[in-house]
Input
Amino acid sequence: MDFSDVINVNSKLCSFSHDGALLAHIDGHYKVFVRYTKSLTVYQMFTCVDEVSHLLWSYDNSMLLCGLQKRGIVQIFSIQNPDWSCKIDEGSFGLTSVLWASDNKSVLTTSEFNLRITVWSLVNKSVSYIKYPKRASPGLEFSGDGQFMALAERREFADYVSIFSVKNWNLASHFKTETNDLEAIRWAPDSVTIAVIESCTEVKLLFYSILGKLLSTISPYQIGLGVKSLAFSPTGQFAAAGFYDQSIHLIPHLSWKPIARFVHQTVIKQEPPSRGDVSRDTTMSSISYSGVTVYKEVEYKTQALAASAVVNMQPSGPLRIKQVKYEIVDSKSFEIPSHAPDPEKPNPKIGPSLLAFSANGLYMLSRNDNQPYTLHIWNVKQLALECVLHQLEPIAAAQWDPVHCRLALVTATCKVFMWSPEGCVAVRMADSGPTINALDLKWHPDGQKFIIVGKHSFCMCYVRDPSSIDPAPE
Output
């Protein structure tokens, strides 16, 4: 891995354009810098009137949106024409969230207390209002093809989903859902199926067609908290639902019924678990937990010549430098540290909150919240636990390469970790580049680099060919 110089950022607000040519970030709360991705030289610079809370690229990469939540203002800048700008003021209604419409011609803002959603047209300056929104971010999403927008609504003491045509913002479909307190909605990659997630107080996940036909209802158990996370494979062939009981249900798109249940176990054993540990439903396939490779992060010290000895040409004793690497441990008796959640606090730290498929859909990663030091990697094709990555610090972020079958993860330290089916690698940034306590990471669309984001700075990490990742030593 190679690293760029450190660049300042505020509130971790930095993102690639959708085509990957440009990189935007906030510096000094008010200034927006647009850089070339290849050289990281400044291409454009814009100034906002107050602190920026949202930074969003338009889908065609021609404009940049800055949301100023404190003032209830949205500022929009043109990348090709710096003299053009737009200002949207929500006034006394306030601003909770803002996002681009998929037509690149409109901006949607949500007022405080979810009183209304306003559609602002950048073409003819018209304004439209959508009433009864349930909630902003998890209750509003555009389809993958960009033709429709799904919105969760609450009216007459019941939950509804409205489907709008983005072309003219006409209502295309409207139906009532079988939920008591709808939490979120998600489009499937096929753009014709909508997943409806019930509040965590009930165990229910529903799939509807775009016309409102109920396709499936998933309630794997009756007592306990419900859905924690939901992810779709890139092709839409599978959906994965993580539940608060620390399990993941694999759901194919043909039936929208679970076919397998992955369980986050406390102890990794070579022998397969009993049927009762694998699935509560005999119609589900058994998951293999045998032959699991466990990679454990370890630190060790190496000796190097002190800087004073190099300058003065005098021996001043060896300087011990910390290094980091992965070691393969015996998976027959490896115990994963697990923390019991506090029953007195809301939103208990239990269940898989981080859940994502690889670019080819063959693998799936998950992080169980009460096992924060461990990342599970599942083989979807073989219905097996492929490997486990155990870290010295809690995992802050993990993300799949959008092109190759590999992932990168960070642990709020100056270390970066990567895994691929060929092996895994650990690198300390201080040894070969900048020092950043990495809190997040974002891949470039070409899969050859990603940005490592800290609290006040970020840098670019350039990754070699996937075949260059050497397996951990035996």
Observations:
- The two ends are 22 Å apart (CA to CA).
- Residues 307-312 form the longest helix (6 residues).
